[in-house]
Amino acid sequence: MPKRSEFLPSQRLREVKYEIRGELANRALELEHRGYEIISLNIGNPGVFGFRTPETMRLAMIENLGQSEAYCHQKGVFPAREAVVMRQQSRGVMDVTSDHVFIGNGVSELIDLVLRALLNPGDEVLIPSPDYPLWTASTLLNGGKPVHYPCAPENLFQPNIDALASRITPHTRAIVVINPNNPTGAVYSADVLRDIVRLAEQHGLIILADEIYDQMLFDDAEFVPMATLVEDTLCGTFSGLSKVYRASGYRVGWVSFNGALDRSHDYLHALELLASLRLCANVPGQWAVQTALGGYQSIAALCQPGGRLYESRQTIIDAVAASEFLHLPHAPMGAMYAFVGADTKAIPGFDDQAFALELLESEHVLVAPGSSFNVPYRNCFRMTTLPDKDTLAEVFTRINRVLAHQQSRHQKPRLELAPDEVKGG
């Protein structure tokens, strides 16, 4: 009988990582099965922490269930796409129509489709570092080469425009912008965004603007939609129901295109072909889009002083400030995450993966190591700001306990001298 060969995965997966739901998350699940209660801060999943989808959205979906049993148009139901158009027009983006809007099974699916329609083998995509790792993974899986441009802690996690420009080559096809940023919570300034647009238009690059946290803003942060700045290139704007509208399980996202539409017919046709091959996105959830975008925006109250997201964020800021081991390069001004740094002087040899594993095993708290987000350093971790402030206070008690243990292990033991040695005998 011939020897049976092993079934091997695609070689394209060799460089793909997604530690947010990776080995640490699998270990957390094992611990839960053994009866331990895990505080999972690795994923921005509002429903897990008691946030509810607005009732009007649930009712809109229920009332249209009768129209949800058949496939819809590959781009999505018309009222949902038209609601996206109206949202963009309210922001001053007047060159978008429902034909330029695609509804997907969350933004995640659309990232894959948009890159698959764009990339040839070896094409390069400029992606921020730190990034949301799906952008890097999708670029790799679609035959492209991710090229990371720095958004360093010392620059308050804002993109370094000179470094970005230096990474543009004849093979570059697109620039990804994640604003407000996941994982850092940075909100990019208008000047930075204009500089990125200038580079994209100068080099003929598509701008892919991941703006799913567009209304999650704190203090005096101002969100500037990328689409309002673009004139002479194509801009794809991504958003959805998962975060601002606390409806992650509905799996409804969208991408709308504006800018150089007259030069983008073939590309948009290719994207529609891919949308057709997967038939359509989840239909029931699409009926909530019009109500979500046109109704009361309850997220604003959650992000203001006294609102739960604001107070949870403030708890993290205060807890980091009070810790002898931690620092925040810049307080998160948007989104639902904090990218926390460890003081490597206080804890020499700190390693984010080892810390995350020890925190999980000993204190049953799950965070995402910073190196999971395609950065060259290993002294940060990402945590979501979604838990209530009491839970977060307990989390930092546990974090500091682990860091104190790590510090004690790295300190050199003091040598005890014999009494005669002390006397000089």
Order of helices and strands: HEHHEHEHEHEHEEEHHHHHEEHEEEHH
Beta-strand residue percentage? 5-15%
The major pleated sheet works out as:
7 strands, mixed
| Percent in helix | 25-40%
Q: How would you characterize this protein structure?
A:
The chain has helices at 23-33, 55-63, 78-90, 106-118, 133-141, 161-166, 190-203, 265-277, 283-286, 289-294, 299-302, 308-322, 352-363, 389-410, 419-422; strands spanning 39-40, 101-104, 124-129, 145-150, 172-178, 206-210, 234-240, 253-259, 326-327, 337-342, 365-366, 368-369, 380-384. The protein has 425 residues and is of the alpha/beta class. The chain folds into two domains: 12-51 and 301-410, Alpha-Beta Complex (Aspartate Aminotransferase, domain 1), CATH 3.90.1150.10; 56-294, Aspartate Aminotransferase, domain 2 (3-Layer(aba) Sandwich), CATH 3.40.640. The strands form three sheets. The chain has a seven-stranded mixed β-sheet, sandwiched between helices. Strands 9-10-13-12 form a four-stranded antiparallel β-sheet. Strands 1-11 form a two-stranded parallel ribbon. α4 (106-118) runs parallel beside α5 (133-141). Residues 414-419 and 421-425 have low confidence and may be disordered.
Write a brief structural summary:
Helix content is 36%, strand content 14%. It has 425 residues and is of the alpha/beta class.
Summary keywords:
Aspartate Aminotransferase, domain 1, Aspartate Aminotransferase, domain 2, four-stranded antiparallel β-sheet, 15 helices, 13 strands, disordered C terminus
